[in-house]
């Protein structure tokens, strides 16, 4: 699709397949759709109407924190170091101050920012220099919209096909549709999709030795890596997607590519990074990824009252040039 075609379709964003056919920007990217200097990506879909739609989802005002204990997972995943929390006395023993050492904002519940992953061919989102990105742009904007929960763990269990969180158990895009249909909720442009895989519920049951094994070699359930999931998310116009597992997509991704992506990989062996869901969403589509969000209490409440939409707020850290951030997320029902 040409740049002129995109501009003329100002009331309609291109489909994912139209993005794959772009010749004026990297194929499969949303670059330039919101301007050449844009650093928000799909967060541009957070319109005032999306925020008001979220407020209209509030019925009884019950509030659920979606933020995991900062010390979990323990030990940290992906080779990250544990942080140290030091509480110190103020002068004259008047009270306390504190410091965090070796703290990684992406060690627990998190947003992955656009500096987290780049395209090895095209660079960071929208062609903007690495050091000009940062979660401070999201913090200035703030995140308020309607959230929608796809409790795939509960839905799959009801189908007699429970997810195995300890394995590379893949959630297909079609299963997201079927799960939401069963919950009688539909995605609208600007919603944030929360996907419960059951990984955190499982992790909480593990003893210390098994947690160390998981940390050393993460294999996990999640969304199908690559274009099928990217297509579903983009074409449903979600502003962002977050899940309760450590990587959103199932791992190891290299074994889980769809036939479409395997053909692409055969044609271009260097395309693997962009075929991972992280590579398709963050640098190409500009879609924020949330990981390790604590969704269990919210899922129980949704199952009890049958309402899977709610007001969702998130306040990323105002950290200049930040790579990621705790979400500081709340769901209000």
Give a short synopsis of this structure.
The protein has 13 helices and 13 strands. It is an alpha/beta fold and 333 residues long.
Structural overview:
- The protein has 333 residues and is of the alpha/beta class.
- The chain has a single domain (33-332), classed as Putative cyclase (Glucose Oxidase, domain 1, 3-Layer(bba) Sandwich), CATH 3.50.30.50.
- Helix content is 29%, strand content 16%.
- The chain has helices at residues 3-8, 16-20, 48-56, 136-141, 152-158, 173-182, 199-203, 208-216, 227-235, 259-267, 272-275, 277-285, 296-305, and strands at 63-65, 84-89, 96-101, 110-112, 143-150, 170-171, 192-195, 222-223, 240-243, 289-291, 309-314, 324-325, 329-332.
- The strands form three sheets. It has a nine-stranded mixed β-sheet with strand order 1-13-11-5-7-9-10-4-12, with helices on both faces. Strands 2-3 form a two-stranded antiparallel sheet. Strands 6-8 form a two-stranded parallel sheet.
- Helix 9 (227-235) crosses helix 12 (277-285).
- Residues 1-10 have low confidence and may be disordered.
Primary descriptors:
alpha/beta; Glucose Oxidase, domain 1; two-stranded antiparallel ribbon; single chain; 333 residues; 29% helix; nine-stranded mixed β-sheet
């Amino acid at each position: 699709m040409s740049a002129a075609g995109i501009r003329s379709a100002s009331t309609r964003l291109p489909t994912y397949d139209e993005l794959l056919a772009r010749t004026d920007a990297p194929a499969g990217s949303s670059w330039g759709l919101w301007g050449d200097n844009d650093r928000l990506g799909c967060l541009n879909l957070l319109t005032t109407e999306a925020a008001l739609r979220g407020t209209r989802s509030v019925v009884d005002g019950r509030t659920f924190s979606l933020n995991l204990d900062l010390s979990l997972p323990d030990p940290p995943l992906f080779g990250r170091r544990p942080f140290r929390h030091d509480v110190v006395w103020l002068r004259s023993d008047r009270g306390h101050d504190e410091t965090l050492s070796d703290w990684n904002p992406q060690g627990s519940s998190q947003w992955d920012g656009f500096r987290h992953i780049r395209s090895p061919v095209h660079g960071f989102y929208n062609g903007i220099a690495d050091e000009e990105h940062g979660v401070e742009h999201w913090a200035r904007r703030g995140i308020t919209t309607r959230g929608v929960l796809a409790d795939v763990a509960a839905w799959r269990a009801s189908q007699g096909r429970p997810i195995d969180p300890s394995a590379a158990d893949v959630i297909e895009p079609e299963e997201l549709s079927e799960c939401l249909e069963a919950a009688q909720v539909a995605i609208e442009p600007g919603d944030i999709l929360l996907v419960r895989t059951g990984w955190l519920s499982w992790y909480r049951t593990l003893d210390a030795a098994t947690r160390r094994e998981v940390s050393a070699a993460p294999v996990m359930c999640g969304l199908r890596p690559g274009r099928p999931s990217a297509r579903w998310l983009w074409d449903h116009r979600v502003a962002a997607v977050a899940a309760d597992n450590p990587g959103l997509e199932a791992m190891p991704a290299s074994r889980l590519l769809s036939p479409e992506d395997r053909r692409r990989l055969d044609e271009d062996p260097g395309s693997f990074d962009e075929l991972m869901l992280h590579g398709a969403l963050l640098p190409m589509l500009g879609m924020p990824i949330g990981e390790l969000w604590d969704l269990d209490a919210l899922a129980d409440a949704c199952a009890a009252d049958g309402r899977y939409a709610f007001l969702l707020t998130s306040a990323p850290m105002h950290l200049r040039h930040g790579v990621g951030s705790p979400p500081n997320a709340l769901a209000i029902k």
